[in-house]
């Protein structure tokens, strides 16, 4: 993904005012259930999510047209199939920069397929071909532990929890491919798997009440600011999600301030092509830049922090089980 524009400076003041009244409680993540509502909410297991992250990294960089891409895709499908009610696999070819043809595998795990009220949760599982932001060697490959693997790991742990205790609503977990092969010189060269899915959803005419994108959700010291394109398309669901996170005690992660950054990420195409209001949970710095390990060789397992995975995963669980709409 890449940064697109800087807008919404005025919204920073409004959302900053909201922040002061929503960070006064903390959660006990060692208890068996959360306590924000009367609904019993399972506890997200950050150790399992961490292991799912490490498993993806162990395949090597998941770059399109490499053996690691095929091996990781097969593992994701095999892991998801026993957990979901239905699994859809989209195998296609997309056109990357300079007209290169790239194999693409999108994977969708569906829970409660008959439910009309639905939430879409998505993350990409591929890695960028080279660490182009690295300070020492921009040609080296990178593990993509945070940028790719962490979001998919959270989805897999959600699937494991859903299999044990079904939520009352429909949930679709979308794992997209070929997100990070793009170049800034070519418009719409990023997020190719999501662009394909948005035009060819796993179910014809698919709709969800809203979507949640996870991108770089496992890094140590991460902060999630309210990204500008998400505010434009899905401010209501995003604000509600941030409220839940803060009530659970994760105010150090989920900041109400906008930092002006708008990102060309998967949610843009879900919003503009599939017309599903979708917001992005993505690691950003207060100045609007990406996390320091973004697109560098430092994006490896050493940056992955269970507490960050827990903050994101437990908030998702609380929203999906107790406060989805």
TrEMBL record:
InterPro entries: Peptidase_M28, QC/QCL. Gene3D superfamilies: Zn peptidases. Residues 106-319 form the Peptidase M28 domain. Keywords: Acyltransferase, Signal, Transferase. It comes from the Bacteria. Pfam families: Peptidase_M28. Residues 1-23 form the signal peptide. One of its GO terms (molecular function) is glutaminyl-peptide cyclotransferase activity. PANTHER family: GLUTAMINYL-PEPTIDE CYCLOTRANSFERASE, GLUTAMINYL-PEPTIDE CYCLOTRANSFERASE-RELATED. This is Peptidase family M28. The lineage of its organism: Bacteria, Pseudomonadati, Bacteroidota, Chitinophagia, Chitinophagales.
């Amino acid at each position: 993904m890449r940064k697109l524009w800087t807008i919404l400076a005025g919204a920073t003041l409004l959302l900053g005012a909201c922040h002061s009244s929503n960070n006064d409680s903390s959660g006990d993540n060692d208890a068996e259930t959360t306590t924000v509502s009367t609904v019993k909410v399972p506890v997200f297991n950050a150790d399992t999510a961490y292991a799912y992250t490490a498993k993806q990294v162990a395949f090597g960089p998941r770059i399109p047209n490499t053996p690691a891409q095929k091996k990781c895709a097969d593992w994701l499908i095999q892991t998801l199939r026993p957990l979901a009610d239905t699994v859809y696999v989209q195998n296609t070819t997309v056109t990357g920069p300079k007209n290169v043809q790239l194999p693409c595998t999108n994977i969708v795990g569906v829970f409660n397929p008959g439910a009309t009220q639905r939430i879409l949760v998505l993350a990409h599982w591929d890695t960028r071909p080279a660490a182009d932001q690295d300070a020492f060697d921009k040609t080296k490959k990178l593990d993509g532990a945070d940028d790719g693997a962490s979001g998919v790991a959270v989805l897999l742990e959600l699937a494991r929890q859903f299999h044990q205790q079904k939520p009352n609503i429909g949930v679709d977990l979308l794992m997209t491919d070929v997100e990070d092969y793009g170049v800034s010189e070519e418009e719409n060269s990023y997020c190719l798997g999501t662009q394909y899915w948005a035009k060819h959803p796993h179910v014809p005419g698919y709709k969800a009440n809203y979507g949640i994108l996870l991108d770089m959700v496992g890094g140590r010291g991460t902060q999630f600011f309210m990204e500008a394109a998400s505010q434009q398309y899905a401010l209501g669901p995003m604000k509600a999600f941030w409220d839940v996170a803060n009530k659970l005690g994760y105010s150090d992660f989920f900041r109400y301030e906008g930092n002006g950054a708008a990102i060309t990420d998967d949610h843009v195409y879900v919003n503009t092509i599939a017309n599903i209001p979708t917001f992005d949970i993505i690691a950003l710095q207060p100045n609007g830049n990406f996390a320091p390990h973004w697109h560098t060789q430092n994006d490896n397992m050493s940056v992955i922090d269970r507490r960050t995975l827990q903050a994101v995963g437990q908030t998702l669980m609380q929203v999906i089980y107790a406060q989805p709409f």
